[in-house]
Amino acid sequence: MDSVIPRKRILYVDCLRILSIIAVIMLHYTAELLTTSNDFNSASWWISNFFNSISRFAVPVFFMISGAMILRTEIGSYRAFFKKRVVPLLISLISWSFIYGLYNQYFILKSKMGAFEFLLDFGYRLLTDRNYVHLWFLYAIIAIYLTVPLVSKFLKSCSESDLRYYLLLWFIVNIAYRLVYDSVERLTGMQLSIPILNIPFFMGYLGYFILGYYLYHFDLPLKAKNILFNMGILSFFIAPVATYFVSVHSGVLDEMFYGNYSITTFFMAAGMFVYFKEKEDAMSAKVNHKLQMLIGSVSKASFSVYLIHLLIELIVSGGTEFQATVLEAALHLAVNISLIFIISYVTVKILNLNKAATYILFGGRG
């Protein structure tokens, strides 16, 4: 059996989950205007660009939290681990792919597709990750979870310096090289390929997963903390401005600084994780028990909110106005993000009252 070291809820992890799910809703909500309008000087575009840019920490932070939490698990049985950790994700993936597939075909596209044809199309889309935009995360996290029984043993045999070496090499391969590659391509039109940096195991989201484990278990030197924190703050300001300039240069939205491996996204995510970890004791002292219970409840629902929020957005909200003042665009965004988040959370809690619904829709997770 796999067992988790008993601990009380970790307040800073709960806060990061809540901020990240709000950020995910924000970046999905603002994406429509950014991808349909090239009016880079309009108030609506700038408001959408600003909030989309500063929300980019969300996905890396989710991977980091998953690494920090799941790698605490002592795995004795592969079967028990997969049953507890992977099967619920597979159930959620199938259920929500089916729900979004139905909604897309029959409510958005107004399709006349028959049931058998729909099931064939659904099966193909499920296999190839083409059902709905945000469900890619489940494919990615399931893939990582399949490696956890081995990765966990690898990490436990590593010293802190070993992990730093891994993370440094991962940073060079994924973050620094990506920045150089993108910069060269946009400045010269050439694609810079460095084969020696094609290093399996040091590529992809696994690095964020291990980074979360490292930052959770080890205390960084003060200088390193300050660098991550200050670079994170700078990145929140640089990302929207840099996105504006590269988009103007390209003539369409350029997502160079939106990517999960962009230099600004990395420092925003790592800086936030370090900052909130440092504030754990101070937050715990100031937050009363009832508020901690509420924060814990929202945090536990974050995965379910992630799954349902785009359906809620499609049903209840309108897009950002293309022609609006800064104040109008900001208020419109704030109101709609709040509505989507609150309705998603309340809907999840209602569905959780039924065990069958919780199992079918969320793999049994609250």
TrEMBL record:
Domain Acyltransferase: 11-344
InterPro entries: Acyl_transf_3_dom
Cellular localisation: Cell membrane
Bilayer topology term: Multi-pass membrane protein
Keyword list, A-Z: Cell membrane, Membrane, Transmembrane, Transmembrane helix
Single annotated GO MF: O-acetyltransferase activity
Listed Pfam families: Acyl_transf_3
GO cellular component: plasma membrane
GO biological process: enterobacterial common antigen biosynthetic process
Annotated TM spans: 12-31, 43-65, 86-103, 132-151, 163-180, 192-215, 227-246, 258-276, 297-317, 329-348
Family: Belongs to the acyltransferase 3 family.
PANTHER family tied to this protein: O-ACETYLTRANSFERASE WECH
Record's protein name: Membrane protein
Organism: Paenibacillus azoreducens
